[in-house]
């Protein structure tokens, strides 16, 4: 497996192009590399939704809300977003904070089995995500 943290920092310096074309060439090359070596490639991106606060109205963004992802979507087998309500809720009170501070969703926007959402818990102490199933182990508390 190859993991790339922050795909936008990579560039194809061979010929000048737009950033979207550059990312498209890189993702295409990564897809070819994965197929040639028989491995998985995970690439992380940070995207800004053009609709901003409208995300709250539908619960999560759509792929069409990210114009720069078109080239990436063509090559990716799976595309998923991590949504943490705490990061885009405004005007919340302390009781709301306690309710949403550890909530997260893993939203599969492109997947061979279709789109779906997985409820997660974000553990601040360890900067990790856990499933919310009843049998899932809980994080140990710091002393």
Key terms:
four-stranded antiparallel beta sheet; 143 residues; 25% helix; two-stranded parallel ribbon; single chain; globular; alpha+beta
Describe this structure in words.
With 143 residues, the chain is α+β, with helices and mostly antiparallel strands. Helix content is 25%, strand content 22%. It has four helices and six strands. The strands form two sheets. It has a four-stranded antiparallel beta sheet with strand order 3-4-5-6, with no helix packed on it. Strands 1-2 form a two-stranded parallel ribbon. The radius of gyration is 18 Å and the shape is globular. Mean pLDDT is 77; it is low at 135-143.
What series of H and E elements makes up the topology?
EHEHHEHEEE
| Low-confidence blocks of residues | 135-143
Shape: globular
Helix content: 25-40%
Secondary structural class: alpha+beta
What is the spatial order of strands in the main beta sheet?
3-4-5-6
Distance between the termini: 35 Å
Provide the gyration radius in Å. 18 Å
User: How many helical stretches?
Assistant: 4
Instruction: Outline the biggest β-sheet.
Output: 4 strands, antiparallel
Fraction of residues in β-strands: 15-25%
How confident overall, as mean pLDDT?
Answer: 77
Total strand segments:
6
């Amino acid at each position: 497996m190859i993991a790339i943290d922050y795909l936008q920092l990579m560039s194809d310096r061979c010929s000048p192009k737009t950033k979207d074309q550059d990312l498209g060439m890189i993702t295409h090359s990564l897809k070819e590399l994965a197929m040639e070596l028989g491995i998985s490639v995970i690439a992380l991106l940070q995207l800004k939704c053009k609709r901003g606060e409208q995300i709250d109205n539908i619960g999560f963004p759509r792929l069409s809300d990210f114009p720069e992802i078109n080239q990436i979507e063509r090559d990716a087998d799976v595309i998923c977003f991590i949504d943490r309500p705490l990061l885009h809720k405004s005007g919340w009170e302390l009781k709301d904070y306690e309710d949403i501070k550890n909530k997260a969703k893993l939203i599969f926007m492109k997947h061979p089995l279709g789109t779906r959402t997985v409820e997660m818990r974000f553990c601040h102490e360890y900067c990790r995500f856990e499933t919310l199933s009843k049998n899932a182990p809980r994080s140990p508390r710091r002393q």
